[in-house]
Amino acid sequence: MPKISENGGVRARPFPPGPDELKWLEQGLRTVGFFSKLGRSQLGAVLPFMLMVECPKGFKICEEGGPGDGFYLIYKGKVSITKKGWTKPVAVLEEGEFFGEMALLFGQPRTATATTSDATQLFCLSAEDFQRMVQQHPEMARSIKRIAEARRLELAHA
Ligand code: CMP
Asked: How far apart are CA 70 and CA 2, in angstroms?
């Protein structure tokens, strides 16, 4: 999870989502991405564990080679994924996309560095809550794994 930082009052400390963010999770995400396969009660089981962080532009959320301590879903803003030795970003992820799943799923260090390229709000799950979520929801685990495998291939073939 991001380290606590007092960047001009910007909160990089996890805090509970408010009503608007919960609505976005419940409604928006049910139509796209990995939450779409969940029923209402399954979704209800995951939501209480989701916290939020607000990060300024240029904030490093996780670093290549570092520990897999959390999983992140972008609510607002943009996150650039970079890798040492690459001249261009591996990817720029936007609203509704997630990152940080590879270290957790494959039990390995972070494959890349994630830095905000705009002021960004993220939902986050601790490593423990993420593991519990994928164990309890195999269909969700499968869809996250499919994306993680595709990302791994992209990194290998660069
Ligand atoms: P993880 O390795 O835990 O931390 C860095 C994250 O960057 C990684 O998980 C993925 O979520 C993300 N990432 C790595 N490679 C790609 C890629 N090819 N496309 C998009 N995101 C990626």
From this structure: 8
79: Cβ below 6 Å to ligand 1? no
- CA–CA distance, 62 with 68 (Å, rounded to integer): 8
Q: Whole-model pTM above 0.85?
A: yes
Three-state DSSP at 75 gives: strand
Residue 132 — φ and ψ, nearest 5°?
-65, -40
Q: What is the pLDDT of residues 49-99, one digit of tens each?
A: 888 999 999 999 999 999 998 999 899 999 999 999 999 999 999 988 889
Whether the CB of 90 sits within 6 Å of ligand 1:
yes
CA of 135 from ligand 1 middle (Å) equals 21
Ligand 1 center from residue 38 Cα (angstroms)? 23
Ligand 1 in contact with 70 (CB < 6 A)? no
